[in-house]
Amino acid sequence: MAISDPNPADEAAATPEDAVESDPTAVATPDTAWWRRYLEEHVAHVAVIALLAAYPLLHGALLASPVASEARMLLPNVETMTAVLYFGLFAMSFDFISGYTGYLSFGHAVFYGTGAYVVILAANGKLPLVPHTTPFMLLLLLGGVFAVLLALGIGVVSFRLTGVYFAMITLGFSQVAYVLVRDWGYLASSPRDGPFVVGPEGAMAPVFSVGVPFVDSLALDIGVLTGDSVVLGPLSLGTTEVSFYMVGIVVLVCYLLLQRVIHSPFGRVLIAIRENEERARAVGYDTFRYKLIAFAISGFFAAIAGGLFAGFRRSASPDNAFFFLVTGDALLASIIGGFGTLAGPLYGRLLDETIREFLSKEGTGGGLLPYLREVLPESILTVDIAGLTVQGAIETFLNGHGSLYLGLLFIGFVLFVPGGVLGYVRERLGGTVAQRVASRIRGGD
Amino acid sequence: MAVLRTEGLTKQFGGLTAVDDVDFELAGGELCSLIGPNGAGKTTFFDLLTGALDPTAGTVEVAVREDTDGERADGGSATGGSVGWIDITDAPPHATAQQGLHRSYQVTNVFPTSTVLENVRIAAQAHGDDSFRAWRNVNGFESYLAEARQVLERVGLGGKADAPAETLSHGEKRQLEVGIALAGDPEVLLLDEPNAGVSSESVDDIIALIEDVATDHAVLLVEHNMDIVMNVSDRIVVLNRGEVIADGPPDAVRDDPAVQEAYLGGYEPGDVGDDTDAEDPGDATEEGDAATDDPAGGGEPG
To answer: How confident is the model at residue A396 (pLDDT cuts 50, 70, 90)?
Structure first.
């Protein structure tokens, strides 16, 4: 993580009032203002959020600069980044249950799919009692509630098992759901392709806006085609950029909530269960209840992620919402980013999407091949080496094979960096990034 | 007076009777040792008490807890005679723990990647009402931290608070084992071979620890080192093939002929053990005569 400018504590002069209202649990610098201390403790968070917030502008600026081709080749576009955010949230919710309690929820896609389908079906007037004009934010919550109920049902049965059997039974449940939505004609005109947001018959398709429900001035629409665009002085944000920010806000709030749970007494019990469930039981925890509640929380946020996905894409299909490979992608992101680190899966997903886009076939988001076509002279591309031209070699071995290299990367991580990116960084720093940066700023060790 | 009792406690695994019709009572403040040859049913007895196993027959009961601390120290509290009993025969492990029954394990069983402090803190948190709180930062619950630090000092791990448990030495892990059990605010401590595999230099530390915790808890101790058992126990119960064959103060048990035959057979030189537990009397000889040179028998299935 790029953290620079550790602004040393030059504000030594503190007023006595500050000391009075300071939190007794904070060991260091109790005489600084609470908000300053809070920011110090969260410098790493603030830096990452600032980087993400600046990304669309940075990306736009780079595309207008002399290194435009390089930027287009290397950097994921804003639409992809939006996908990184909502899928990153899904991967975090997966990590919340799998990385913290150690129970691999291999059917997690069922919650993601539930969130996505609730949003679209409600917008199409297909959810009984739910008007199609229900604000998007409420639909997200509604999807979350559905997922919680589903998680409790699945969990009551599945948590009787452990280890690989738990993974298998959750997988079984999600595959049942997958087949059900794939074959249920009520859900979409072609259930195999999944529903689109078309609105109920005779009515306009609703737009989805993120913000305060029922207050237009405090909400912005999302979606590449249907979203709002905003002009703020010299800044002009297109629909994609606005969607990126609005989805980002929801993801950020969800992340902070999840993080809070992790650092609570409840979260510590989850870690104890992962570390040694027999002993956790022996010291007095009814682990079944803790696991079940954690599963419900995890399902809730998975559904929010699915709802964001559906709201942004305005469509979903059994294969990109309910299928077990969707869970597989979350697992991949978690392993690469860091299992049991919560934030790690977001970075894992970022790496995942970046590689896929870099090696994408279409080259719509930039990538290697369009770049080489642009820079390399025709003569080099057509050089024949052992019956294969350079261009042919690229097309054969690189283009559209992002998944292949991702798979190799995955193997590499499992073998050599089992803690993932964030786990490795934390191990090197000897604590979470936020903690270490904070103590360094304070001039500690 | 008594804090724990069993009646007719029996556990059968198929045709094998591991624990056979055991009537047992543990008094408050008492340090009772449970001894017996390999396979006598000691660990199974622990598992039955704590709910890790369900008995085939019989009952386990604990006395209604006194909430005021200190009363347990002398064993005879003011209400001692008239306490009620709670049946925990079929209670799962977490419920028996909530009733004040905490155990340490023969094979080290800690939270490996958590810090030593967290290992003990999580056990302290288990007897509070805050474990379902998901919104406040865990560091705000200082009483558990304070309790955990106190326990760490007591078991001699105060300097290791921030080390991950898996990095401790074997002896330290044994201390942590006891620490986790202690942090649960136990009424009864069940210590399953706290000395298992501990080097001779560390044995004294653990003995001191056992004697220390016995000052304010009822302790049921499984131990193979006869010197330790004879020295620290108020009372000794001998199990053989699941049955109680002797129960009394150390001197009486040592001289009991049935015990001599079943367990301490090799205790006197010249006595050629002809019973089926041939390997164990040999062990007992060694441990009985030269305990300090010998790391007490590790990894024996009870």
So the answer is: confident
**Pair (B134, B240) in one structural domain:** no
User: Are both B33 and B140 inside the same structural domain?
Assistant: no
| Cα distances (angstroms) measured from residue B87 to each of A175, A405, B7, B84 | 44, 60, 11, 10
B126 CB within 8 Å of a chain A CB: yes
Angle at A68 between CA A67 and CA A69, to 5 degrees: 95
Task: Name which of A22, A279, A287, A445 to mutate to probe chain B: the one with the most chain B Cβ atoms within 10 A of its Cβ.
Answer: A279
Q: Please indicate whether, in this complex, the C-beta atoms of A25 and B118 are within 8 angstroms of each other.
A: no
What is the Cα Rg of chain B in Å? 19
Q: How far is the alpha carbon of A339 from chain B, nearest alpha carbon, in Å? A: 14
Inter-chain contact A25–B139, Cβ cutoff 8 Å? Answer: yes
Interface of A with B in 275-304 (CB under 8 A): 275-276, 278-287, 290, 293, 297
Is B240 a member of any domain? yes
Residue A261 sits at the chain B interface (C-beta within 8 Å)? yes
Higher pLDDT pick, B264 / B193 = B193
Looking at the structure, do residues B72 and B82 belong to the same domain, yes or no? yes
How high is the ipTM of this complex? Answer: 0.81
Per-residue CA distances from A302 to A94, A150, A389, A398, B89 (Å): 7, 12, 46, 32, 41
Average pLDDT, chain B: 81
Shared domain for B254 and B200, answered yes or no, is yes
Taking only the tens place, the pLDDT of each residue in B181-198 is 999 889 899 999 888 888
Query: Which residue among B184, B211, B239 closes a domain?
Result: B184
Longest CA–CA separation in chain B, Å? 68
Cβ contact, residue pair A281, B111, below 8 Å? no
Measured in angstroms, the CA of B150 and the nearest CA of chain A are apart by 17
d(CA A347, CA A345): 5
- Which 8-state DSSP code applies to residue A77? P
Do B190 and B180 fall into the same domain? no
Taking only the tens place, the pLDDT of each residue in B27-50 is 888 999 999 888 888 899 999 999
B174 CB within 8 Å of a chain A CB:
no
pTM listed for this prediction: 0.84
Q: Does B162 touch chain A (CB under 8 A)?
A: no
Q: How far is B230 from chain A (nearest CA, A)?
A: 29
Domain extent for B273: 2-100+185-293
DSSP string, A104-119: --TTTHHHHHHHHHHH
Q: Is residue B160 located within the same domain as residue B203? A: no
Instruction: Give yes or no for A420 touching B (CB within 8 A).
Output: no
Q: Choose from A276, A283, A295 for mutation: most chain B CBs within 10 A.
A: A283
- Tens-digit pLDDT profile for residues A410-440: 899 889 988 888 888 888 887 777 777 777 7
User: Which chain B residues have a beta carbon less than 8 Å from that of A261?
Assistant: 134-135
B233 min Cα distance to partner chain A (Å):
25
Q: Give CATH for domain A43-359+401-441.
A: 1.10.3470
**CB contacts, 8 Å: A284 with chain B:** 94, 97-98, 123, 126-127, 184
Quickly state the pLDDT bin for B81 (edges 50, 70, 90): very low
Tell me which of B149, B165, B184 is where a domain ends.
B184
- What is the DSSP annotation of A308-361? HHHHHHSB--IIIIISHHHHHHHHHHHHHH-TT-SSHHHHHHHHHHHHHHHT-S
Contact between A318 and A191 (Cβ < 8 Å): yes
- Say how far apart CA B257 and CA B246 lie, in whole Å: 10
Hey, is the C-beta of A445 within 8 angstroms of any chain B C-beta? no
Whether B107 is in a domain gets the answer no
* Nearest residue to A123 via CA among A272, A226, A242: A226
